[in-house]
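Methods — Computational structure assignment.
A single polypeptide chain was analysed. Its primary sequence is given first, followed by the predicted tertiary structure written as structure tokens.
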Amino acid sequence: MTQHAGRHRHIIAVAVSVVLALVGAVVVYGATRTSEGPPQSPSGAERNQSPSVAAPPRGSDATSSPSGGLSAKSSDPGTVLKASPPVAIDIPSIGVRTNNFVNLGLASDGSLEVPTDFSSIGWYGAGPAPGQLGPAILAGHVDSHNGPAIFYRLGALRPGAKVIVSRKDRSKATFVVDRVQSFAKDRFPTALVYGSTTRAELRLITCGGSFDPKSGHYVNNTVAFAHLID
């Protein structure tokens, strides 16, 4: 097994825990929360017709060679950047702009850690950095005890929106949003979100759907899918 393939399988292995940890950590702001809740992805994406583990997107079965290049099965990856941690993000269309990044590792139970600060965005550092080949994972809270959190408006993103990630090496990775979808927690398409890709992609993840006052959690996860253009 190549180093890249091993890392990829590790990402898949913790994917479900990532979702559960993120949802479990969100605390809704009680009486100050509006009845409408956070913006949602388009109604067509709310149907949740995906199986519990959805089939990977086309081409996602591509493997990586020991040198880090794509196998013969895969297509041209286009622009791919060297590894460099994210240090800032700008999503103009939904008013997100912050340099408050934290590096997420694994908790003692094997789940992904979540940001302790509701205004910060967490990057799963064991996976690809934004701009590298594969899906870079960024997670943030939707709301907090006191009001909207960093990804409150993630569901309002639309295809074509730009996401600009500044990196530690002073380069910038510009992504364009392909789609935004909402998935029921118990039918989260692990392979679709975390599976291998043939280009540099980005996943932005938060809670979404309706809020269940009995459980104290949102019933869905909102995921924005984007790919690198520059």
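Note: Residues 23-35, 43-74 have pLDDT under 50 and may be disordered.
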